[in-house]
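Structure tokens please, single chain.
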Amino acid sequence: MYTIVSGTNRIGSHTQKVALQYQKLLKDKNIDAKLFTLVNFNTLNRSPEFLKYEEEYLIPADKFIFIIPEYNGSYPGVLKAMIDNSDIYKDWNYKKALLTGVATGRAGNLRGMDHLSDTLHYLKMSVFYNKLPISVINKVMDENGILNAETLKAIHQQLDEFIKF
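Here you go.
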């Protein structure tokens, strides 16, 4: 099972839109993927709601796609808090991860993807080599998703390779 993690709790973010587009592209490739969003999700304690989401989205997944925005040269603290409060053995150990960085700047959150890679490696996850930085996200997408042909081609290639991984 695939779970797409939209790595921010900001409502209406570019990250959420990209995550939804990844979900649609996977559906077009005959793969159902659940979308785990941190919007309105309390990551700070293991509440009954947290445990319910863990059972539905994290434990059954064997492949994760992390869409992560750049926050101060890294990835969002809300995502780190979610990981820190999760059951690392059931949720993450020996599973696979794909990373896509999203930023309005020119580097597409390269540094944040490296930081998250380090965290996921510590959790004994296999991080796929093709990490995609999507730069100037505010210029390559509109409310309907990414429109830039080169970016879409790179996403398709990334997904096709990850499916085989």
